[in-house]
Design a protein that fits this description.
There is one protein chain. The strands form 7 sheets. The chain has a 6-stranded mixed beta sheet with strand order 17-26-25-24-20-23. It has a 4-stranded antiparallel beta sheet with strand order 1-8-6-3, with helices on one face. About 30% of the residues lie in helices and about 25% in strands. The two termini are about 65 Å apart. The radius of gyration is 35 Å and the shape is extended. Helix 5 packs across helix 6 and helix 11 packs across helix 14. The chain is built from 14 helices and 26 strands. The protein has 3 domains: about 90 residues, RNA polymerase II/Efflux pump adaptor protein, barrel-sandwich hybrid domain (OB fold (Dihydrolipoamide Acetyltransferase, E2P)), CATH 2.40.50.100; about 80 residues, RNA polymerase II/Efflux pump adaptor protein, barrel-sandwich hybrid domain (OB fold (Dihydrolipoamide Acetyltransferase, E2P)); about 220 residues, 2-Layer Sandwich (Chloramphenicol Acetyltransferase), CATH 3.30.559. By secondary structure, it is α+β, with helices and mostly antiparallel strands. Its EC number is 2.3.1.12.
């Protein structure tokens, strides 16, 4: 009988996995213990082994796709066996992707038919010269716009450069143009009312056209058309500012009056460096529109006169700010599983656990001397982070309230000390755990942390390496950071942020002398730890590091 292979839970925080690579294809013979695929979890990329023998009959997930835990990803059985019955028995929701896509396509094709009623669809009306005017996206943060004023009413004749309405956005009040000719057949939003971006606000077309099909379909997004793209391009040029705009926007006609031009025409003229006062408008009242700018050819004589007048103008006016045109450029990458989980867990921690922070300065003079002496004899070099970790473990034994966890309806006070050490990797952050750190020597801790760091960067850590912490340390001192605050790593109640050692003047025995000071900040979950409890822990940690011989007691 065919057996389904499901996405396993490979870590305590894993909710879904990404099929990084398949090591077998449909039709291959599979033995128990064979590696079927590599799965990217929130912690590492791990091998997925088969516990069944037979032929790989079905692959349900393509490489690079993510699926939730327990979802069917493959079926193994006898060669030629019908695997569909196994899929149905497994839940019936894992049909081949091609079938799912086909079904979704059919569903989408049926939707317009049910919504359009007896009228024509938007695409059919467009062929008859009907334009649906939708609320444009006039700023990058805009989600809806309010109709401040209608300049046309139903039944009015509309030209392609006419302003239909003023729209109030989250940034400014801007003009909306229909970019269509005909009769205003419908106004979808009354003055003072708001419409979502891409919602229907008006319809322009031949008088008497039946537009019931579009109205019945509602505000479903329409396919992009050239007019909408032109409107989006014109949006930045329409914003009102207190400072003077470019010379083109403030152009005057030869008789001293203001040049009449559509916002899109002004934007194109500004981009091309065209003086609007030299352009003849073809629209009503001599208004300049897009096609006037595109067809404009500057005369040679005015250009020469402008060049001769330039020295005089510059002498009379202060130097203008030079214009520089840059290029908006960026790249986007899919969010990795590790980054998704970091975002989810730390957001939950910060917005659920009431954080408070305690900072303390520690004199590291004696710790530096002790480290130098230890490294003369130790088989593995001991770092300052190892000293901090050992001192923290001893302090936690003396302050069990800090070595605790919030479990909702109860608080767990851990008697063992498992310290998570934050390690930066290419895709994010991993926190391998040094178990029973209070009972380990400095050289043991040093060797273990180095091993964790190497395996973390090579993506070789296993779930057992990062589970079960009772406290976490995050050290950015090696990057030159003096101090910072860290977000608690749940379910721990606290995390210690360690800064670098700075040479600063300090007062000793009434005299100012050079000193080496390190700042540490304890982030506490106030549901578990109170201020006095956290302060007492830091005092103990400070005493241990300032007299490091106590670490050996």
């Amino acid at each position: 009988m065919a057996e389904v292979v499901r996405m396993p839970k490979m870590s305590d925080t894993m909710t879904e996995g990404v099929l990084a690579k398949w090591h077998a294809k449909v039709g291959d013979k599979i033995k128990s213990g064979d590696v079927l695929a590599e799965v990217e979890t929130d912690k590492a990329t791990m091998d997925l082994e088969s516990y069944e023998e037979g032929t790989l009959l079905y692959i349900g997930v393509e490489e690079g796709k993510g699926v939730p835990i327990d979802a069917v990803i493959a079926v193994i059985g006898k060669e030629g066996e019908d695997y569909k019955s196994a899929l149905e028995a497994a839940g019936g929701d894992n049909a081949p992707e091609a079938e799912q896509a086909e079904q979704k396509t059919e569903d989408k094709e049926e939707e317009p038919a049910t919504g359009s009623g007896s009228g024509l669809s938007e695409e059919e009306l467009a062929k008859q010269g009907v334009t649906v005017v939708r609320m444009p996206l006039l700023s990058d943060t805009m989600t809806e716009g309010v109709i401040a004023e209608w300049h046309k009413k139903v039944g009015d004749k509309v030209k392609d450069d006419d302003v239909l309405a003023d729209v109030e956005t989250d940034k400014a009040t801007m003009e909306v143009m229909g970019y269509a000719e005909g009769t205003l057949l419908h106004i979808g939003v009354e003055k003072g009312q708001a419409a979502k971006v891409n919602g229907i606000i008006a319809i322009v077309g031949p008088e008497g056209t039946d537009i019931s099909g579009v109205l019945n379909a509602g505000d479903a997004p329409a396919k992009p058309v050239a007019a909408q793209q032109d409107a989006a391009a014109a949006a930045p040029a329409q914003a009102e500012t207190k400072e003077p705009a470019a010379p083109v926007a403030e152009a005057k006609s030869t008789d001293g009056g203001r040049v009449k031009a559509s916002p899109l025409a002004r934007k194109i003229a500004e981009d091309k460096g065209i003086d609007l006062s030299q352009v003849a408008g073809s629209a009503e009242g001599g208004r300049i529109i897009k096609k006037d700018i595109e067809n404009f050819k500057p005369a040679a004589q005015p250009a020469q006169e402008q060049a001769l007048a330039a020295p005089t103008a510059s002498a009379e006016k202060s130097a203008s700010i030079p214009q520089y045109t840059g290029e908006v450029k960026f790249s986007e990458k899919p969010v990795t599983q590790m980054r998704k989980v970091i975002a989810k867990r730390l957001s939950e921690s910060l917005f659920t656990a009431p954080h408070f922070y305690l900072t303390m300065s520690i004199d590291m003079d004696k710790a530096m001397e002790a480290r130098a002496r230890i490294n003369e004899y130790a088989p593995s070099k001991v770092s300052f982070n190892d000293l901090v970790l050992k001192a923290t473990a001893i302090a936690l034994k003396q302050h069990p309230a800090v070595n605790s966890s919030w479990l909702g309806d109860k608080i767990r006070y851990n008697e063992h000390v498992n310290i998570g050490v934050a390690v930066a990797v290419e895709d994010g952050l991993l926190v391998p755990v040094v178990r029973f750190a209070d009972g380990k020597s400095l050289t043991h801790i040093s060797a273990e942390v180095k091993d964790f760091a190497q395996r973390a960067k090579a993506k070789k850590l296993q779930p057992a390496d990062w589970e079960g912490s009772t406290f976490t340390i995050s050290n950015l001192g090696m990057f030159g950071i003096d101090e910072f605050t860290a977000i608690i790593n749940p379910p721990d109640a606290c995390i210690l942020a360690v800064g670098g050692i700075s040479q600063v003047p300090v007062v000793k025995n009434g005299a100012v002398v050079p000193g080496n000071v390190m700042k540490v900040t304890l982030s506490c979950d106030h549901r578990v730890v109170d201020g006095a409890t956290g302060a007492a822990f830091l005092q103990t940690l400070k005493a241990l590091l300032e007299e490091p011989v106590r670490l050996l007691a």
